UniProtKB/TrEMBL annotation:
Residues 86-146 form the Glycoside hydrolase family 19 catalytic domain. Coiled coil: none annotated. InterPro entries: Glyco_hydro_19_cat (IPR000726), Lysozyme-like_dom_sf (IPR023346). It comes from Lysobacter antibioticus. GO terms for molecular function: chitinase activity. It comes from the Bacteria. One of its GO terms (biological process) is chitin catabolic process. This is Chitinase class I family protein.
Length: 203
């Protein structure tokens, strides 16, 4: 398991990304604490690269707040995008009127669709079908994001496909874990900065 110097991490964050408001600092502390408690990560470079990429993804997907958020939009927009009669909605397992809005994106990586909520809920032992807003709680959102990225819930691609022992981290193509190649280079650059932060703040 990893152990970090929180203050050194926060100082490094300020140098690489800019000022840290109290709310953002608290969000960073929460995530570092969760990572330190995450027994699935060992202190090796591959896992460090994976963590750096996850943090970069969270930063991008949460509009740089590093807090679980709702997808931008209203119920009408979500129904247009994800309603049960749409192609995307069918792919997401939305079967009932209102599913597009009910199961819109939430969390650090925007869990979306009835099928994904059901799968995440079963694995975590939480009723996300009847209580979808639970997916926005930081502890739940962290578990969903990490499990989803490790196991390929979102697109079928997973962290192990892009971060392997003896190979350079493939930060650019790792975007396929979440969303094709949208903003792949931008997020890769953020991940490299996070990797520097992690190295410099390791105990």
């Amino acid at each position: 398991m990893f152990a970090f110097d929180d203050e050194q991490f926060l100082d490094g964050y300020r140098r690489r990304f800019g000022p840290l408001r109290d709310e953002l600092a608290q969000a960073v502390r929460f995530l570092i604490g969760r990572i330190e408690q995450d027994a699935s990560f060992n202190q090796n470079p591959v896992h460090r690269h994976q963590i750096a990429y996850c943090l970069a993804t969270f930063k991008w997907e949460t509009a740089h707040t590093l807090r679980p958020i709702d997808e931008f939009g209203d119920d009408a927009r979500f129904e247009r995008l994800y309603g049960p009669n749409t192609r995307v909605g069918k792919m997401l397992g939305n079967t009932r009127a209102g599913d597009g809005a009910r199961f819109h994106g939430r969390g650090y990586v925007q869990l979306t669709g009835r099928a994904n909520y059901e799968r995440a809920g079963k694995i975590l032992g939480i009723d996300l079908i009847n209580h979808p807003d639970e997916a926005k709680k930081p502890e739940v959102a962290y578990a969903i994001a990490m499990e989803g990225m490790k196991k390929g819930w979102f697109t079928g691609k997973k962290l192990d496909s892009y971060f392997k022992p003896g190979q350079l981290p493939n930060y650019e193509d790792a975007r396929r874990i979440i969303n094709g190649q949208d903003k792949a280079q931008t997020i890769a650059d953020i991940a490299r900065r996070f990797d520097e932060l992690l190295v410099n703040s390791l105990h």
